[in-house]
Amino acid sequence: SAQAESVINSLGIVEDQDGENGSTDDVELNVFRAQWMSELKPNSASNGGNRGLSSRAADLKRKQELAREEKARELFLKAVEEEENGAVYEAIKYYRRAMQIVPDIEFKINYSRSPDPDGGNENDMDGEIEDLLAYFHQQLTLQDNSLKICVPEVDIAQMHISALPPEVLMYIFRWVVSRDLDLRALEQLSLVCRGFYICARDPEIWRSACLRAWGRSCTKLVPFNSWREMFLERPRVRFDGVYISKTAYIRQGEESLDGFYRAWHQVEYYRYLRFFPDGQVMMLTTPEDPLVTVPRLRSRNTRVESIMCGHYRLSQDTDNQTKVFVVVSKRKEEVITALDRDNLIRWQTAPETEHSFHVGLQLSSGGRQSFNKLNWIHHSCHITYRSTGETVVTAFDLDQMYASFYFARVKSYTAFSERPL
């Protein structure tokens, strides 16, 4: 525009010098000026339009990014839900889709959920719990200073659960927890009412759970402030599901008869570890999918072939690393009985050797769940000869074939309570 003004001014100077043309030249000059300015205005408007288009494009891009992030967040939370429900491989699909949309979606999500005794890092502070318990006690105390667990919301003809003595109600709560230590169900039960919340925070229940989980090694609370805090924060293996390890590799096959090609095989198999509160453990290696195998591991009396049973113990070293040591062996084979047709005498055969496998694992936490990962640190086979009593130990090298175990919660494992805590 400045260049145009200079051109117009120069034209004005020329007009002054050639004033002899008179008014005719003035009219033509004015027309030229008007035409020139009309040609300049669309250019300036187009520049403003370009700026408007760029701003609209930036706004559209931001909206698209927000939409992608929202979609990725939805898929990621769906994956978390599937993982909590035990559908590990469905969860992996959703995780992959979410990270394909937004690679760092895991760090853009704010988790806000209720405390989970088996997998949450959002534990209540002790002071807040004490204040809340005191408040609930005050609200539920009658004039005669006797504690009433709960009050019926509406009048009913049948007997209400509030009529039960506190001792009977606490016994019911112990059935809810069961010998399998289903503290997750206890936390859900505490959401019913204030009275149930008080009962679910009973120190004796949490003390019994700690004794069952760690035995004599948890006789003291130090450094924890409560038995509940110990159960939530002290490293332990989980009993409401199964630890799964998946191994996959490619193996070269045999050459064809004509020698033109050689097949390659992709081999996949799984290792399963199921822990029980009484120190027993089951270990299974199989190519079958978890959807088929996991339901069979619900009972310790399962009849799955090639399953190994044994015991485990927890060990916490000076480096504050919790390790799990497992010793498993195949179940004792059924006594082989044969009938001698001549003498009608039954005879029995027993194996000459006994095989046991010693496994060392390091317990750790990953993601939002606690104590959900086991890393290999040792694996060996012990062969004992019955005739001489000699034991031969063979240690295996830990390579990429030893994938870490990841925990998958299985609801059916705690769906029924066989014995109270």
TrEMBL record:
Residues 158-209 form the F-box domain. The keyword Cytoplasm applies. One of its GO terms (biological process) is SCF-dependent proteasomal ubiquitin-dependent protein catabolic process. One of its GO terms (cellular component) is cytoplasm. Pfam families: F-box-like, FBO_C. Residues 15-25 have a biased composition (Acidic residues). Part of the SCF (SKP1-CUL1-F-box) E3 ubiquitin-protein ligase complex SCF(FBXO9). This is F-box only protein. The lineage of its organism: Eukaryota, Metazoa, Chordata, Craniata, Vertebrata.
